[in-house]
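Quick review question:
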């Protein structure tokens, strides 16, 4: 299709309802939303698709998705990394980023619906999930990326992208606690520790494996999470724009492969808005509808060297990301700025006295 330019106040409801209906065609009677019919489900992408339903007014179906999570939650507050037809697979690990994302999804839904009964119903699951995640926080602030079946951290290492998403989930959990009159001071301390690690302590990440800087999400997710704001965010965008962005196509998943991915391009759109780069955000988003099909679904990615769609799959979470970015651009719902703003401020790192004296002379 032709490029679609969206701006504030312009949300083509029928257009995006079709993408929501694509998600609904995949959602199972129990509320679960796999990647595609017969495919796997992971908790993070399940929530991404549910957020698309909330935005387009399918509130009951979105709530069913969150109640499915509540019913599947393990005693320790976690979920397994993947499920197929409701049966856990990859049950040898639990990814902290996946576990915490329920707070982001539930808060997003509440901002749109103001359904306090729903918020109260999901509170026990959120509290258990966040406490599970924070048990994996290192003394230096980062949160280990996964937990093995024996309960120990997987390689005791952390991911920049995963921790940036965790930072937003922690912020949402704090908002939920405050809305319900619950104590959140301990979560706030953990949020600040994680935020400072992401901003000031890069040595805390990718310690035991090769750096993930080739992934575009490591570039823009710290902006989505609220680590970098204002001019710092703009500078970060400028640093690697030419590395990852392909004109008229979208954002590459990794810097060394000729592959643009639609969901990452949607998330980049929101990061651009958070950085104050509205024109760039509108432009990137306008390219993505080349990958839309008549049923409202979007292909996962495009391999531009061979000029082929790859993989041959239209995922529920890609449709969800498309709707999320559209909401952010148009400010259609009360949740439109969730990924664009942060209500918490990162404490500056206090330098030792000798370093402060040195810095003052420059």
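Suggested answer, residue by residue:
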């Amino acid at each position: 299709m032709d490029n679609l330019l969206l701006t504030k106040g312009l949300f083509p409801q029928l257009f995006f309802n079709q993408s929501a209906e694509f998600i609904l065609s995949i959602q199972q009677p129990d509320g679960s939303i796999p990647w595609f019919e017969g495919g796997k489900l992971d908790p993070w992408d399940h929530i991404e698709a549910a957020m698309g339903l909330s935005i387009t007014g399918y509130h009951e179906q979105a709530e069913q998705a969150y109640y499915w999570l509540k019913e599947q939650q393990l005693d320790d507050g976690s979920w397994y990394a993947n499920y197929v037809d409701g049966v856990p697979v990859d049950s040898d690990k639990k990814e902290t980023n996946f576990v915490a994302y329920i707070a982001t999804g539930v808060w997003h839904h509440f901002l749109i619906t103001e359904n306090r009964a729903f918020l109260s119903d999901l509170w026990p699951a959120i509290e258990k999930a966040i406490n599970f995640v924070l048990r994996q926080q290192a003394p230096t602030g980062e949160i280990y990326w996964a937990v093995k079946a024996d309960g120990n951290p997987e390689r005791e290492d952390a991911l920049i992208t995963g921790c940036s998403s965790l930072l937003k989930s922690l912020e949402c959990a704090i908002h939920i606690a405050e809305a319900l009159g619950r104590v959140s001071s301990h979560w706030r301390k953990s949020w600040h520790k994680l935020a400072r690690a992401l901003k000031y302590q890069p040595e805390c990440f990718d310690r035991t494996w090769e750096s993930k800087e080739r992934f575009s999400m490591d570039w823009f997710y710290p902006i989505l999470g609220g680590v970098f704001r204002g001019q710092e965010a703009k500078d970060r965008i400028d640093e690697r724009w030419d590395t990852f962005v392909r004109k008229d196509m979208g954002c590459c998943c990794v810097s060394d492969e000729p592959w643009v991915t639609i969901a990452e391009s949607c998330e980049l759109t929101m990061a651009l808005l958070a950085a104050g780069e509205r024109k760039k955000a509108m432009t990137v988003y306008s390219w993505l509808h080349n990958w839309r099909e008549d049923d409202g679904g979007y292909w996962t990615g495009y391999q531009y060297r061979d000029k082929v769609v790859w993989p041959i799959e239209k995922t529920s979470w890609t449709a969800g990301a498309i709707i999320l970015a559209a909401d952010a651009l148009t400010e259609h719902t009360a949740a439109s700025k969730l990924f664009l703003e942060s209500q918490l401020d990162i404490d500056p790192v206090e330098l030792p006295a000798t370093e402060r004296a040195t810095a003052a002379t420059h």
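Why it works: The chain has a mean pLDDT of 94. The radius of gyration is 20 Å.
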